[in-house]
Amino acid sequence: MNKFVKKIKHLIRKNKGKLSTYTGVYHTWSEAKSNSTQGQAYANKKYDKRSLRKFTVDEKYTSGRNMIIPIVLATIKNKHRVILDIGGGVNSIFSHLSTTQKKINSCYVLEREEVSSKFNKIVPEKYKGNLKYISSINDIPYNNLDIVYFGSSIQYIKEYKELILNLVKLRPQIIIFSESIFSQLPDDIWVLQQNMGSNIFPNLFVAEEKFIAFMDNLGYSCTLNIESPINKPDGHSHSQIPRDQYKCKTLIFKQTH
Known about the structure:
single chain; Rossmann fold; globular; alpha/beta; 8 helices
C-alpha cells in the first residue's frame, strides 16, 4: 500500500474542506450534550428530509477524502471485496467507486435505524445486490471485512471504542478514519461544534497518542497519518484550546496480526 501514500496525500490536500468552529471542553458526551442547542437530532431530521429527495449513486468527480477508498481498494486482491462505511448517508462511499468496482464489491453503510430502511428502498434496482444500509454490524453476513471507513464520522459516535472493539471481531484488513479531529491532549475531550447554523452539538477531539496505542493493541498499526487542508490558520478554531494542540487528520490503520 506504500506506493499509494503519495497519491492519497496529494488528493486529500487538494480538497479545500469546510470551515469548523468549536467551543467548550467537556469530559463526557452527556456533559457536552446538556450544553448544546437543538443538537444533532435536529440537524439529522433536516438532512434526512433532503436526502430522501435525492439519492446519489454515481458521482461525476471524486476528490479529497472520498478518493481514499477507490485507491486503497485497488490494493486488495480478494475477488469479492467488502466495505463498511460508518455513517456514510445517502452519498456513501459507494457512489465514489468506479463502475467496475461497483460490480465486484459489497458496500454496507451503517446508519441510524430510523433511516437505514428508508435508504434501502430508494437504492436503484441494479445496485441492490452491492449496496445495503444497515443499523447494526450484526447485519453483515460475513466473518471478515476488507475495509472499514469512518468518513469524518468517529467524532459523533458516543461510544466509539466499543464500536471499534466489535468491528475488529470481523477482522477488517484496513480501518480508515478520515477528516476527524485528533489532538495532542492527554485524553479525549468533547467539545461543541457550531458551524451548522443554529445546530450546536457534541464533537469528539480524539487524543491521538492514546488512540494510536489503542489501535496497536488491537493489532492495527498506523500506516498513514496526514493533516487535512482545513488545518490552515483560519481553517477552524476553538475558543479555549490553542490551535497547535489539535489538527484535522486522516489516519489509516492496517491489520498486523
